Amino acid sequence: MKTEILSMLRETDGYISGQQICEQFQVSRTAVWKVMEQLKAEGYQIEAVRNRGYHLEKSPDVLGEAEIKSLLNTSWAGCDVLYFPETDSTNTRAKRLGDEGAVHGTLVAADRQTGGKGRRGRRWESPAGSSIYMSILLRPDIPPDQAPMLTLVMAQSTAEAIRIRTGEEALIKWPNDIVINGKKVCGILTEMSTEIQWINHVVIGVGINVNTEYFPEELTETATSIYLESGGKQQRSGLIAEVLKQFERYYAMFLETGNLSAMQEEYNRLLVNRNREVKVLEPGNEYNGYAIGINETGELLIRTEDGQIREVYAGEVSVRGIYGYV
Ligand code: ATP
């Protein structure tokens, strides 16, 4: 009921009467009052005026199940939302939930991670109160070798969501980062549980530096936040909802073809590496070349000095600009 009341308050410009809420949910005035008190305790500024009712004056940047759900505009992504003020890693949580039978579309979100993860065992800085740490659990009916493309589907969705909500020029650094003005604002980590022939579940984790003001010394050259680039603070829950909305859209395109052909052009338009000289860092092999764009299956096409086109598989590879991160 908290989610629905929050949605009603959001959708009403003026006041909404206690009576109306009571009738809608078939509950007592005291029950409604209790929900309002809970919301106030979470930081929402709700004005209560005798004979007029309740009015939501201000939504703070709080996260919570009701907050996220009340903003969702999706059919399956986020059908279940689990929120934790603190967790080890939202990916780890989502994987555990997946093993226990959680449904396709389950979303795990947290305000802080104590063991935020990047690729290859690296750490993702996850302070409280400013960023998004979210993981979505998927049960796609696709062969396991198609699943790595989902990282690119999420990258496209996140870049698009950031652009829509903030107007910032969010670009994709292949395969799993989003950058603004050449610095990393978001990282994506996909983890799978598979059998030889089929997928049990896929978890896609997204970490977005939203209102972060400071980074640890070693990250200041490469990391940034939406706030640091735009000067404005964002409501995290609204951005989560937009990422999920975009993800549903691009995921449907992906499922239709089983590859990225329907979104390849859009992806390449947002690809920060495109038409740039890059350094490809494969384990035990390093070379330079020009990044052309992705192909239908999400490999990065690189033209090397001898004119050959190489297809780079995401797995173990990092791509850098030749003079820096991008
Ligand atoms: P590469 O650029 O080498 O491909 P990656 O995209 O694989 O890196 P990830 O493994 O996704 O990187 O992210 C982990 C790395 O990101 C860390 O090693 C650190 O350098 C950097 N990092 C950690 N926390 C943050 C953060 N909150 N914001 C931006 N960058 C971060």
Describe this structure in words.
- This protein has 326 residues and is of the alpha+beta class.
- It contains 9 helices and 14 strands.
- The strands form 3 sheets. A 7-stranded mixed β-sheet has the order 3-4-5-9-8-7-6, sandwiched between helices. A 5-stranded antiparallel β-sheet has the order 13-12-11-10-14. A two-stranded antiparallel ribbon has the order 1-2.
- The longest helix is centred in the last third of the chain and has 22 residues.
- The chain binds adenosine-5'-triphosphate (ATP).
- The site of adenosine-5'-triphosphate (ATP) has 14 residues, from strand 8.
- Adenosine-5'-triphosphate (ATP) binds next to strand 8.
User: Helices and strands, in N-to-C order?
Assistant: HHHEEHEHEEHEEEEHHHEEEEE
Question: Strand arrangement, largest sheet?
Answer: 3-4-5-9-8-7-6
What is the helix content? 25-40%
Overall pLDDT, averaged?
Answer: 94
Q: State the major sheet.
A: 7 strands, mixed
**Radius of gyration computed on alpha carbons:** 21 Å
Given the helix and strand composition, which structural class is it? alpha+beta
Query: Uncertain segments of ≥5 residues (pLDDT<50)?
Result: none
Count of runs of 4 or more consecutive helical residues: 9
